Amino acid sequence: MTTTPSETPSQTPSVQLVSDLVTTIPEFRGVYEVHVFHQGGVLPHVFFWDVVQDTVRSFLGEAPAAADWRRTLAFLEEQSCRGVVGIDEVIVTSFLGDLPSPQEPGHGIVQQLGPVMAARFGRIRPHG
Known about the structure:
Layout: H1 13-24, H2 29-39, H3 44-60, H4 69-80, H5 85-94, H6 115-124
C-alpha cells in the first residue's frame, strides 16, 4: 500500500515539512514510505537522517538516482525563510546539525547552503 504524505488534515509544522518535501521532491518518496512503515508514522527528526544521507551522497556524486542536492538545499532554504518554529527546529537540529564535519567526505556541501541556513549552521557549528 502506498502512503500519501498529506493524509492527515491537521499536521504539525514538522510533519507538514516532511509532507511538503516528499511532494516537492518525489525522489524522497521511497525513503518516506520505508520510514512510515518502520516507524508506524512520520517522525520528522528520524526521517531527516535519511534526507541528510541522501543529500550528501548526491553532493558527492555517489547516488545518481537520489534527489539532486541543489533542489533539496533550495527547498530547505525556502522553508527556513518562513520562520516557523517546528520547521526551523527540524532543519537546524536534524539537517544542519547532521551535515558532515570538516574531516568527513561531503563537508563541502556546507559552502553551498543558502544565506539563512548558512547563518544558522554558523551558530550551531561555528567551527564547521
